[in-house]
Amino acid sequence: MRPLHSILRFNRLAATVIASLAAIWTIDSSALRSLALGAILVVAVSVLASTTLLLPLLRLLGRRAWEPGRLRSLVGTPSQSFWSSWTDRVTRRPILAVTLSTSLLLALALPALSLDMRSSVLGQLPRDHEARVGYERAAKVLGAGVVGQARVLLSLPDSERPATATRAAELGRLLARDPAVASVEPALLSDDGRSALLFVTPAYASESPAAKAAVVRWRHDLPAAAGPDAEVAVGGEPAAQLDYENQVRGSMWRILLFVLLVCYAVLVFLLRSLVVPLKAVLVNLLSVAAAYGVIVIVFQWGWFDGLFGFESPGFVEPTVPPIVLALVFGLSMDYEVFLLSRVRERFEITGDSRRAVAEGLASSAATITSAAAIMVAVFASFIATGIPAIQAIALGGAVAIALDATLVRLVLVPSTMTLLGDRNWWLPEWLARRLPSSFERLPD
After folding, report:
1. Once rounded to an integer, what is the mean pLDDT over residues 379-399?
2. What is the pTM of this model?
């Protein structure tokens, strides 16, 4: 074993995880950026520890660092012969393995097509939580929209104070006739008399789809009603939540594109192939889509309410999809490179793609499944928080890692690589000359 070589490879993977999490910074949201920054710092500290602390500790421990120990002998782990026979069964009927594994992943991913992203602070609290109960009782007495008022700002750059007051009153009367409005307070004029602020109480709760739909309608209709010389801006609680939801939806394609390109580039560099990295990012997408589907089933459709503390709010918090996407892609790269680098090494030695797949999987499967079990346990521990957004991230991460390290890495990847054969390692000559070799040719 070459500890330094393994550590350098780990640092490359860590850089990919950091890059995947950095994709979240394409969303102009301090909440999402702070989550991404925290995860990036954890990975960076791990890299620092692996390059400064790990090697001296390994030297101090000596042989004890590698000896199996009593626990392993008591529990036992699948032997390499087990994984060799498993690989043989998978690669013997690759078309059947690809069909069954892909069908299962697509079936799990199908509910993701109905993903409904909505923001709700109260929706993150249990129905019997005192803050939620208090709000709902106050809403019955005072009105559903009192707590989260909308604000309409009318700006007339060339107007005088009396004219601004008149136009603001007209706009207030127009708003008051809207069925989605409970009341409109008298306008507050600015010191220069060129702007007026109206406080609008919706007839619905500020977090409801009806209140957000009203904001969309006001932004479309009010500027025309106010006149060509006027500027109208709609803000307040329902508008802020609507804008946050739209911001996340509009940024998902940028996050996805950024993560796909970074992961593909890193895999091309490490594996010296254009085909295998493309297949890798596609199957990673399947894992993420399956995780999204499970999130929809549990937190939007409520199929498992009451089980393991789940209480579906009927939608998915906008924070969840980008975090799960970046996190899962970054972590799955670990299993991806660990497996495929072993396969590539064996191919460099043997020149036989089918044998390389079998030997690479047999030598890495135990490590992959063990590491995945640890990650699934870590994610699962957060399911007990009782906050749907955190539970959804935890469940999505656990499901995606479990699927990625088992169904994808142990069935779909070896079967597709068997079907592709030597085409797995296709690389144009001009690119091969420019890429450094990542593998040493070792004796067989």
Report:
1. 87
2. 0.84
